[in-house]
């Protein structure tokens, strides 16, 4: 029971969770030739939904780019998303922590939907979200990932400025309560959650075994990887929004530093696979990458969570993040329409190069250079945390020292 409590009653160290995620991500690439990603599948789902209403999207250039063949249950990317939701839900049930939660301020639902639309649009404009254009993009040695990362950081900074305004926060909702905890019938019924968690886990394992038996090995691997990612993001509370947002609000850099460490692990293993014949997935480094990153960073702060944070929080029963997810699909689908119909690709992405750092710097240079940049990121995050924690910047510290000296004199 003590081990059970450690695994399911306590959240995991972010360094451990994200390091394992980096390892699994690299192994998944080596086995399948594709990467951990979610918003591409959100976009395809948007295309399927339009198809249900009679809209023919087969000639849309963006769907020709990302592929619309099959369904979510017949694609590896589909099972990555399904697996993440299932893995997160299973651990939430096993930890007995599922509960339907509705925001006290209903305006948060509208704000979350708007933030989701902006984030979904930005992610697909940049050809990837915090996963494909960032966490798994850097280990692919695609230069566009560094552009996206910097733009996302800037976008989150401005997002924080907006959400801290009074007109965005609105008036606080005060509710009467009691100082004494009350065990209600609803809370007692939650004891069934671990049993449901075991049942769902068994059913999911059955799906994996079926795919192996049917010779659909890649789908089975995607099922396993997706569930592992879901478990890790939920137990480690992995959210790229908090990694950036916390830097601007409190100076806290634990998640930022943990992500850097996780990518270092992924970089080394991915590099080995690429050197042994795996094909790196390189995306264009273009104005669309910059603008997409800015919009994505801005949107995830308005929404309150990125794709990973949104998914595990939705499985916790937080209604807000189901709305954010719907916004993501709407934003991504609108970008797919505008890619050619509104000339977005022609204006922001056409004729821009795919920059592969291995080709530009050579294998050794790319590996050493990427690891060095990630180390710099880690050290800068650490520096920022020590000197800007809770808003006490360097200039403020200097003023305090001068004031202190003046008082002593």
Automatic annotation (TrEMBL):
Cited InterPro entries: Sulf_transp_TsuA/YedE, YedE-like
TM annotation in the entry: 12-31, 78-98, 110-135, 141-163, 195-212, 218-233, 254-274, 280-307, 319-339, 361-380
Residues spanning the signal sequence: none
Pfam families (UniProt xref): Sulf_transp
Compartment(s) of residence: Cell inner membrane
Keyword annotations: Cell inner membrane, Cell membrane, Membrane, Transmembrane, Transmembrane helix, Transport
Domain of life: Bacteria
A GO cellular component entry from the record: plasma membrane
Topology within the bilayer: Multi-pass membrane protein
Major site of localization recorded for this protein: membrane
Matches recorded under PANTHER family: INNER MEMBRANE PROTEIN YEDE (PTHR30574), SULPHUR TRANSPORT DOMAIN-CONTAINING PROTEIN (PTHR30574:SF1)
Family: Belongs to the TsuA/YedE (TC 9.B.102) family.
UniProt-recorded name of the protein: Selenium metabolism membrane protein YedE/FdhT
